[in-house]
């Protein structure tokens, strides 16, 4: 006599008969407003990510029903933009919180693998000149090829003994170095530096510093705030301006440097996993670094798809550890000081 065997549907047990299961959730079944409110991005953007990352997210699996690339991307976007593995987020696409975590890991690594495709510095002279022209048109600051600054992202304590990630605010964080253009597109991103390092130390040890210390780009420089040392390739504001030319230089510097401050506010408001409002990233420094980089990749892709950097709702002023705000670094580079003096004499007198 044959014995009937009942096949249990795990999704049915978890969520009930009326719930969308892994293979039933379709983007076409929901409105644009729903996608924006739940996942922070419009339909066409999500479809692009499915096409871009689909091959990486369709790797062989031991499971009888692999989670589709579409569902994995929605799960990751939900985490990036909300900052938590909410039960309702997983319920919406029919997966558990444990599966949500695996999806975030898969999508993060797929985006990190493609970081150099979307985050890179211009290689040709025509593009470099275009950067200078665009920045000059903003506030009259010549020679600028990018604005640089650091941003802290809170992470869980790696272990009780490791104090290298504790910033002066007493929180564990990663100090992330970024350079952007006038649109807010990120051209350099380094997300792996421990929070105890001050901005100037991060820059000194960065690959960016190694590239530009060689003096490859004459009459070109980045703009950095007073937490950095003046360099021949990095112009900083004067601590105490005295002459009209020095005041005009500082005003132009501030107006130009504000581009990256707006970019940081956009990153924080669009990717709430970075702003600390839902707590620190509950991952190791390495995995947290990858999540930050993945959000930066998405930021640049969104710009390529016409999602303006200033269109995201802005939250209040960024809260950064106090050491990063107004530490005035005195110049030890006489040649850099000469270049800044010549710049003020030529363009701001």
From TrEMBL:
* UniProt key word Acyltransferase: no
Per its UniProt entry, which superkingdom is the organism in? Eukaryota
UniProt cofactor(s): a divalent metal cation
UniProt KW keywords = Cytoplasm, Hydrolase, Metal-binding, Nuclease, Nucleus
Cell compartment(s), UniProt: Cytoplasm; Nucleus
Location, primary (coarse class): cytoplasm
Which InterPro entries does the record cross-reference, listed alphabetically? HARBI1-like, HARBI1_animal, HARBI1_dom
What GO annotations for molecular function exist for this entry? hydrolase activity; metal ion binding; nuclease activity
* Protein transport as UniProt keyword: no
Q: Which residues form the DDE Tnp4 domain?
A: 148-300
- Identify the GO cellular component terms for this protein: centriolar satellite; cytosol; nucleus; plasma membrane
Question: Which protein family is named in the record?
Answer: Belongs to the HARBI1 family.
Tell me, in a sentence or two, what this protein's role is: Transposase-derived protein that may have nuclease activity. Does not have transposase activity.
Q: What is this protein called?
A: Putative nuclease HARBI1
């Amino acid at each position: 006599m044959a014995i009937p065997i009942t096949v249990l549907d795990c999704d049915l047990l978890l969520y009930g008969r009326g719930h969308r299961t892994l293979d039933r959730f379709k983007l076409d079944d929901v409105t644009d407003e729903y996608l924006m409110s739940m996942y922070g991005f419009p339909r066409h953007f999500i479809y692009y990510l499915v096409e871009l990352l689909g091959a990486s997210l369709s790797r062989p699996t031991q499971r009888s029903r692999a989670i589709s690339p579409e569902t994995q991307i929605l799960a990751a976007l939900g985490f990036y933009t909300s900052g938590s593995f909410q039960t309702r987020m997983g319920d919406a696409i029919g997966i558990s919180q444990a599966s949500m975590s695996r999806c975030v890991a898969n999508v993060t690594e797929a985006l990190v693998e493609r970081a150099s495709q979307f985050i890179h510095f211009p290689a040709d002279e025509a593009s470099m000149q275009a950067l200078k022209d665009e920045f000059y048109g903003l506030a009259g600051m010549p020679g600028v090829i990018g604005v640089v600054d650091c941003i802290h992202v809170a992470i869980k304590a790696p272990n009780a003994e490791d104090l290298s990630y504790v910033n002066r605010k007493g929180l564990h964080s990663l100090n992330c170095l970024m350079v952007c253009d006038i649109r807010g597109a990120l051209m350099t991103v380094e997300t792996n530096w421990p929070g105890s390092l001050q901005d100037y130390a991060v820059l000194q040890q960065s690959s960016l510093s190694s590239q530009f210390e060689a003096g490859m780009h004459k009459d070109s420089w980045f703009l950095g705030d007073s937490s950095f040392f003046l360099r021949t390739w990095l112009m900083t504001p004067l601590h105490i301006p005295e002459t009209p030319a020095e005041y005009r230089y500082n005003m132009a510097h501030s107006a130009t440097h504000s581009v990256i401050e707006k970019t940081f506010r956009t990153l924080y408001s669009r990717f709430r996993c970075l702003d600390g409002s839902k707590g620190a990233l509950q991952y190791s420094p390495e995995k947290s670094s990858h999540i930050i980089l993945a959000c930066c990749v998405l930021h640049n892709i969104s710009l390529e798809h016409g999602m303006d950097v200033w269109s995201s709702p802005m939250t209040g002023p960024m809260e950064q550890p106090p050491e990063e705000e107004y530490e005035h670094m005195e110049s030890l580079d006489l040649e850099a000081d000469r270049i800044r003096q010549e710049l003020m004499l030529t363009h701001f007198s």
